[in-house]
Amino acid sequence: MHILGIETSCDDTGVAIYSHEAGLLSCALHSQTALHAQYGGVVPELASRDHLSKLLPLVQQTLVESGLTSKDIDGIAYTAGPGLMGALLVGAAFAKSLGHAWAVPTLGIHHMEGHLLAVMLEEHRPTFPFLALLVSGGHTMLVAVEGVGRYQILGETRDDAVGEAFDKTAKLLGLPYPGGAELAALAITGDPSRFYFPRPMLDKPGLDFSFSGLKTAVLHTVRAQPIVDQQTKADIARAFEDAVVETLWRKCERALKKTGFTRLVVAGGVGANQALRQQLQIGMSKRGGELFFPRSVFCTDNGAMIAYAGCLRFQARQQDETLEIQIKPRWSLEDLSA
Ligand code: KG4
Ligand code: ZN
Known about the structure:
- By secondary structure, this protein is an alpha/beta fold.
- It has eleven helices and ten strands.
- A five-stranded mixed β-sheet has the order 3-2-1-4-5, sandwiched between helices. Strands 8-7-6-9-10 form a five-stranded mixed β-sheet.
- It starts with a strand and ends in a 23-residue tail after the last helix.
- Residues 111, 115, 136, 268, 301 line the site of zinc ion (ZN).
């Protein structure tokens, strides 16, 4: 079974082909970062238009790279939500039209299920059940994963997502959008003892997160500095990253205790953060547990995770029942069926 996967939920156009027998055959990505950078954030209308112009060339590219033709494709999986309405509509309409033209079934996939299962594209992958820490630009959650489609959200952010906090802090420090990865690079040269930021919600029980206060703490600190030179920026970046990493790990620890799980998966764009991975690795080793993560290009948005999730669901005989385009800009992981 060969599944074409299409991801257009935000500002990355991702296309990939996954084979049930042979694994991932090809994967192509067009990032819109340069397009949106001048506006300091994603401009939804520009994102939709750009997806539209990139999808067909990317599909052609993945077919060529995998040595297949359209006749070899057995199904098309696309991101149906959550995400930007226009961007999702473009991907869904494109996938459904292509499915109709090629006479193959289509299936809408939950973007966060894609992130959650991306780790299965790696050789070092977990068995069920596991705890997943999903940290992206739009989401921050801890999920108990009992199997495909069996997800229980244990905790979520009450305000900003971690990636959003990274991006907003990066902006405060004058770094270009999206900023998360650049802030992390800057933090490497930062002095960890110069500033200290609060670890949000660690003093309260439960597994929810809150990151908007942290961003405000950074803002006050930046304003209080007589000169914000390069070293000061690096020191602030380091203190911010340390606060985020410690907060995320402490919540993971709580969730591991609560569930009794011994396997932890970190995924989503912020899952590419090296300091976070290091802390989770150390913490899991101390507990005698194991950490799993997708390679960095599969932490951020990509088509491979959608093709993979689609393949599992097509194998379970799921598919769209009508030609009607149905997207869900807001959609809970817990609403998915097994
Ligand atoms: O999963 P993703 O590609 O898109 C969403 O679904 O949101 O995540 C993008 C987020 C952005 O906020 C970006 O700044 C952040 O992931 N990010 C990072 C790193 N790489 C990407 N944050 C911290 N450290 C990184 N190395
Ligand atoms: Zn994402």
